[in-house]
Amino acid sequence: MRRPPEGTVLYLSPTKALAADQLRALRSLRLTRVRAATYDGDTPPDERTWVRQHANYVLTNPDMLHRSMLPSHSRWTAFFRRLQYVIIDEAHGYRGVFGSHVAQVLRRLRRICARYGSSPVFILASATTSEPATTASRLTGLDVVAVADDASPRGPATFALWEPPLTDLRGEHGAPVRRTATAETADLLADLVVEDVQTLAFVRSRRGAESVALSAKRALGDVAPQLSEQVAAYRAGYLPEERRALEAALRARSVVGLASTNALELGVDVSGLDAVLVCGWPGTRASLWQQAGRAGRSGQSALAILVARDDPLDTFLVHHPEAIFGTPVEATVLDPDNPYVLEPHLCAAASELPLTEADTELFGPSTADLLPDLVRRGFLRRRPAGWYWTRRDRAADLADIRGAGGAPIQVVEAATGRLLGTVDEASAHTTVHEGAVYLHQGESFIVQTLDLDDSVALVEPAEPDYSTTARDITDITIVERLRSTAWGEATLCFGTVDVTRQVVAYQMRRTQTGEMLGEKPLDLPPRTLRTRAVWWTLSEEQIDSFGDLDLAGAAHAAEHASIGLLPLFATCDRWDIGGVSTAVHPDTGLLTVFVYDGHEGGAGFAERGYSDAAEWLHATRNAIESCECESGCPSCIQSPKCGNGNDPLDKTGALILLAELLRQAPS
């Protein structure tokens, strides 16, 4: 009797590192009938052919599914026809714009599977998410049953909250300055390496990870030079062979201290890891526990230290530990119906198989409204059988699922032509502008030229003792008010806005101390995005009751602090959101404070701020009030990315405004 054909499994992870780690674990099981292989951007062309024809367990990522597997589904016919399970690992990582894109990629996958007669079971895994069934259902579009029993092996863990000390330095307008979190983390990393404690330091930015590794190497060079080679940096933008070599070195303990971005946060099993340093609040409780959980995975005792930045949220958390340890992780925020997300996926789906009326239910209620517009703009053509993609270019290229937008900027060493790495186009204005300090593999460079037309930044080696931070100015206009609620005479709103930002200058700060060294102007074009915002206004009567108050400074301070605290309530980072405040906004005629999503079409963060506004703004006022500074500092109302040089700011005025706003807010 002939045995029926074996089923296939598709495994999706947010990162290549995790997929490669899972492949190693699978192969160690020596299951003879499992032919497992990774299929990602690092897979050579000849191996891709073997994977399509022979693998029955394919490990990939949403990017590859979106750009390669679904558009060429006819070459994967046998695999999709026998697809039984889709495993989505680290499901909490699919949030914001990225999560919204992945939700639509999964709907396209379900549609292709139905075309070949399969209906796979979706299995989503996450150790750190609340409302797992709701989140998974929103991601897949399917009904989901939650399994919440935790049987993972864990040893005892010590968790420390570490606030760097104040220095004798003074920042903008005489504000006290704390020692930087990166400098503090580098010293802790060096200390732990000296004690042979294998440590992973999570740093929020690529540049920060490089800076921590470089500073730790320098510190070890002074006390134990032979150990400096045991410290390295790891981040996205490295070449594939560099990443794999670092992962192997970490497992072999030839690297004892590694400074990494969150590229190593998700799932990579480093069983001997003893300690984790988290340099600055990582944006969500889910990420904090995910990062801390990298240590002690073999059941041994572990250490985790959160090193606070000079920032309103970090300061609030080290003084209110119950907000970390006594509170469940956040629900994942995503918005698959965002038209800027949905439209390109409708085009991609139509290029895979013509869209029909039946597909409107699969892709969501906004689909029926968007299809006629896509026809009018020439992306799709309507025929009796449905909607067709008729262009010659690839429809999948319309959607950048990581939300970066535009071609990546290549960072090239001018003298040699060596490609150092890439930077997404959206952040190029702030990270590789002319004069920016760029770090790569422990080497530092100065950007000489940023050519946006050719998507290249030319750099030359240098060893500056400072870092650079871009400054921008922002204007905002209200396009549509979608929701509003009255808090007495105050009004809270949520809606669509146009935000125009322009990077106008950059600051130089001494690396170790944070001391301001100067500011230089930049000439870069403005960028406009249509997004979603939450905003609040106070009536003229309320304003009149304040008497002689610096309204602009008070609103500006309240804006900065509320941006700093929103990540406590939405699964975002303060760099995912922005704000604008004014004593009289032209669209409202009133004092208005806006907080907006920093992604085209919105990412759901401002919407969460609107729904949790009372709790969020109460926490904002408490954070300002509990800060020990006299007139404002980076721990309460100053912002590291303020385009106005943190001027004007009025700490006392912000407390007065927020008290009046919250006087009749729901309790």
Mean pLDDT: 89
Q: State the helical fraction.
A: 25-40%
Number of strand elements: 26
Q: Tell me what portion of residues adopts beta-strand conformation.
A: 25-35%
> If strands are numbered along the chain, what order do they take across the biggest sheet?
6-13-12-9-11-10
Please give the count of helices. 21
Silhouette:
globular
**Which class of secondary structure composition applies to the elements?**
alpha/beta
Biggest β-sheet description = 6 strands, parallel
Question: Separation of termini?
Answer: 70 Å
Question: Which spans have pLDDT < 50 for at least 5 consecutive residues?
Answer: none
Task: Give Rg in angstroms.
Answer: 25 Å
Describe the structure in your own words.
With 667 residues, the protein is of the alpha/beta class. Helix 18 crosses helix 20 (613-626) and helix 20 (613-626) packs antiparallel against helix 21 (651-662). The longest helix is centred in the N-terminal third of the chain and has 20 residues, at 96-115. It is globular.
